[in-house]
Specification:
The chain is mostly beta strands and about 170 residues long. The chain is built from 3 helices and 14 strands. The strands form 4 sheets. Strands 4-8-11-12-13 form a 5-stranded antiparallel beta sheet, with no helix packed on it. A 4-stranded antiparallel beta sheet has the order 5-6-14-7, with no helix packed on it.
């Protein structure tokens, strides 16, 4: 297990103890004390406004007049393209999303695996969905294709601000 190089490996021991190796990192934990397995969340975003996530990071939502692609911590899209309200949440079994250049859709689980995101991080990784359940943004990894632009559209800008380690 310790010398393996493929993905994630986990061994379950008596009394719930788990030892997990993920992409070169080994973690030992009891599920009751492990936040990654016990803190799924769902928040409705207020626009404009700020939503604080359980890890202290924030999603800041506001309206802007123009569209640009932004960076991996910013997502701007036409408000007419989504069903409000927007929801910040953790992944759920079977979640899928699609983006420009992808034929069909892809499971969130597979996106995490392709990006080599450790299992412990996947459980609390934030994503944004609309009220119809369409996943718009897997923060830092993928954005749905919402580039239908006209001069009269209003745009929503979402910005992700990770909590700095100095604030603990």
């Amino acid at each position: 297990m310790l010398n393996g190089t493929n993905g994630t490996t986990r061994i379950d021991f008596p009394n719930g103890l788990k030892i997990e190796r993920a992409y070169g990192k080994v973690v030992c934990y009891f599920p009751a004390q492990h936040p990654a397995e016990n803190n799924p969340y769902t928040y409705i975003l207020t626009i404009p406004g700020q939503t604080i996530l359980p890890d202290g990071s924030a999603i800041i939502a506001d309206y802007v007049d123009d569209w640009h692609p932004g960076d991996d911590q910013t997502y701007i899209f036409a408000s007419d393209d989504v069903a409000l309200p927007l929801i910040a949440r953790t992944r759920q079994a079977g979640d899928r999303m699609s983006w420009k250049g992808l034929a069909g859709s892809k499971k969130i689980k597979d996106i995490f695996i392709d990006a080599k995101i450790p299992l412990e991080s996947r459980q609390t990784w934030p994503l944004i969905a609309d009220n119809d359940g369409h996943i718009l943004w897997l923060i830092g990894l993928k954005k749905a294709n919402h580039e239908k632009i006209s001069a009269k559209q209003a745009f929503i800008r979402l910005r992700y601000k990770k909590k700095t380690s100095g604030g603990k």
